[in-house]
Design a protein that fits this description.
Elements (H helix, E strand, L loop, with lengths): L1 E7 L2 E6 L10 E9 L2 H9 L11 E9 L11 E3 L10 H4 L22 E4 L1 H6 L2 E2 L6 H4 L2 H14 L6 E5 L3 H12 L4 E5 L3 H9 L4 E3 L6 H8 L5 E6 L5 H9 E9 L14 H5 L3 E4 L5 H12 L9 E6 L3 H9 L7 E5 L3
Parallel strand pairs: 8-9, 8-11, 9-10, 11-12, 12-13, 14-15
Antiparallel strand pairs: 1-2, 3-4, 3-6, 3-15, 4-5, 5-7
Length: 344
């Protein structure tokens, strides 16, 4: 079978590899669509992983083979899945911190989403894999995994009706989070981003305000929009560590700052720490998803409770992964979500 194999930043090869063998509790799917995640782009561009490796985890596909002990799925069914499974039985899992589980990152799809065929291991079959309706096209199905990630982050945000929410960064995670915030009851949703294209798309998706922080004073604009109170929730969805400082400055008393982005460069920042005690603000990190968000994400995407269709701006064939990553990583391009398609 074919796969796009990452060796280094400028060396991604579309090549033949062995099709994985499945075990008794596994299933094999033919990849139909796989989203190009911001983490995939970051890994490839910043070479934070060692090749050869096959990236990709936002997977939607068709079951083509099942293990002899699999009774839940049949050949020909349409499914989505995700990447990591917790053990449900450790110190962290017992307390609901499933993504902190030691097993979590050790579990994976084989060989990765950017391949023609993918083995879904038994644990993933049991806890992370779900059917999708025939009416849902493959590209939107590939958006279910990032929607689930955002749902996981919003659990910590504890959004109430009529809350105001600022999302810093208008990439896929930012715009999904912004729409979900509105779906959860927020009456005022603000995004900030340097990209004109992404700000305009945010407004098209129904976001109330879109701020260019290079041309407007973000803190002043947030103060104006919220009548001087600050926002109830800030979601950081861009890998710029200085945003933490700004987030602390614009969140209201008792508000919450949700950090949903890695900070590889200059991760040490200064904040007004007195606000933690005096104003009871919270700064909370969030990572990935748990099995409990997948079903909700499927319902949201299938019933079009948020608009993921207009977020998908480009598709690329599996054979052109390098070009897709280069295009998506270039800030000069009008691009949001790229979907990689298997060759027919």
């Amino acid at each position: 079978m074919k796969a796009s194999v990452y060796y280094s930043k400028n060396d991604i090869r579309y090549q033949d590899i062995e099709q994985p063998e499945i075990g008794d509790g596994d299933i094999l799917i033919k990849m139909k669509s796989c989203g190009l995640c911001g983490t995939d782009i970051h890994k490839a561009q910043h070479q934070t992983v060692t090749g050869p490796i096959i990236l990709g985890h936002e997977v939607a596909g068709e079951v083509v083979k099942i293990g002899k002990n699999v009774i839940r799925y049949g050949v020909g069914e349409r499914v989505v899945t995700a990447i990591h499974v917790p053990c449900f039985n450790c110190h962290y899992c017992d307390r609901g911190y499933f993504t902190m589980c030691d097993q979590f990152k050790k579990t994976n799809l084989e060989p990765g989403g950017f391949s023609e065929y993918i083995r879904i291991p038994q644990l993933h079959v049991e806890h992370l894999t779900h059917r999708i309706i025939p009416e849902l096209d493959w590209d939107r199905a590939a958006m279910i995994e990032p929607v689930a990630c955002c749902l996981h982050g919003l659990k910590s945000a504890n959004i109430h009706a009529k809350d105001s929410v600022l999302v810093m960064g208008s990439g896929t995670i930012g715009l999904v989070s912004a729409q979900l915030a509105a779906l959860k009851g927020a009456s005022t949703v603000i995004v900030s981003d340097l990209s004109r294209y992404k700000r305009e798309l945010a407004l098209k998706l129904g976001i109330n305000h879109a701020i260019n922080p290079a041309e407007e004073d973000l803190e002043q604009r947030v103060s104006e929009i919220t009548a001087g109170k600050g926002v109830d929730v800030v979601i950081i969805a861009a890998g710029v560590s200085s945003l933490v400082t700004q987030a602390v400055n614009v969140v209201r008393r008792g508000g919450r700052v949700i950090v949903f982005s890695p900070f590889d460069n200059n991760p040490v920042v200064e904040i007004d720490a007195s606000r933690l005690f005096r104003d009871e603000i919270s700064i909370i990190g969030t990572y990935s998803l748990t099995p409990y968000e997948m079903k909700e994400a499927i319902e949201i995407v299938e019933k079009e409770k948020i608009n993921v269709r207009d977020m998908i701006t480009h598709t690329w064939p599996l054979s052109d992964m390098h070009e897709a990553i280069e295009f998506a990583a270039n800030p000069a391009n009008d691009v949001l979500k790229v979907i990689i398609k298997a060759e027919e």
